[in-house]
Design a protein that fits this description.
Elements (H helix, E strand, L loop, with lengths): L1 E14 L2 E7 L1 H4 L7 E4 L18 E9 L4 E7 L3 H7 L6 E8 L11 E7 L3 H13 L3 E8 L16 E6 L6 E2 L15 E5 L2 H8 L9 E4 L15 E4 L2 E4 L6 E3 H4 L2
Parallel strand pairs: 7-8, 7-11, 8-9, 9-10, 11-12
Antiparallel strand pairs: 1-2, 1-6, 2-5, 3-4, 3-6, 4-5, 12-15, 13-14
């Protein structure tokens, strides 16, 4: 983990209330992997004689994409409160105080050739990064993504064209109507690894699917975090190995670890 002053290179609305921010932070970009996140301070960077503590807590934001050669990172976030509203007003040239990369990343199994990615809402973020890692290893990737409505859908042009992108919306306004788990049936026999990220009810629904016993499944959990460094224990979840911290022991877990 490193602390850095990240320079804002772009901050654009990618979907309704969802912003794509590009940052330059070479010391973090050099080590970031799919599934890891940044802990972002949503207040002006401290200067001599000036330090704001409002909002007090940083915000954990998953890494969408890494460009190691240029030292750049991209994050995608929904505006849901004061912290992310502050981020949405950041302009090119502004600085953000960030910690990262944090958390346990996804792991592509050596035998994987067909990767099935399943996301709900903003949970698509780490799976975009994982899809790019898969393509670099000549692994085929299909991303099945669920959103509430068409206005919230992640733009297809922000994905590598080699990724098969299947969209479902709860209200049927775009793509397949209904929950994202209903769209998975035809892809399960094809997949030799499945990775998912989204709200816990969606992940539990994935766990209830008739998954082949030999299919490796990893899930990235979404939890509120205080410190994001394993100290405050505010993001603890029960697992087969006892209580685990999502920020340090996760956010990525093997599905069998969770005992769902």
């Amino acid at each position: 983990m490193r602390q850095a002053r990240a320079h804002v290179l772009a901050n654009l609305e990618a979907a309704q209330g969802t912003y794509l921010m590009r940052l330059r932070a070479p010391s973090i970009a050099a080590h970031a992997r799919a599934g890891q996140f940044l802990h972002v301070r949503c207040a002006p960077v401290a200067t001599a004689g000036s330090l704001s503590h409002d909002p007090l807590l940083r915000r954990p934001l998953s890494i969408l994409r890494t460009r190691r050669e240029s030292g750049e990172l991209e994050i995608l976030y929904d505006v849901v409160g004061r912290g992310t509203e502050y981020l949405s007003r950041a302009r090119v040239g502004d600085e953000l105080d960030v910690l990262g990369p944090l958390g346990r990343p996804f792991t592509l199994k050596p035998a994987t050739r067909h990767l099935l990615l399943v996301s709900g809402g903003i949970g698509i973020v780490p799976l975009v990064a994982l899809a790019e890692e898969a393509l670099a290893r000549n692994v085929l990737a299909t991303l099945v993504a669920g959103f509430r409505t068409a206005a919230k859908v992640f733009p297809a042009e922000l994905l590598p064209p080699e990724v098969e992108y299947v969209v479902s919306t709860d209200d049927g306004s775009l793509g397949q109507p209904g929950l994202v788990t209903a769209a998975l049936g035809e892809y399960l026999p094809w997949a030799d690894q499945l990775c998912a990220c989204g709200p816990t009810p969606m992940l539990r629904a994935v766990a209830r699917l008739p998954l082949p016993r030999s299919l490796p499944v990893q899930v990235s959990l979404e939890e509120h975090m205080g410190c994001a460094m394993g100290v405050c224990l505010g993001c603890v979840v029960p697992t087969r190995r006892g209580l685990q911290r999502v920020c340090r022991d996760g956010p990525v877990f093997e599905l069998r670890e969770l005992g769902w």
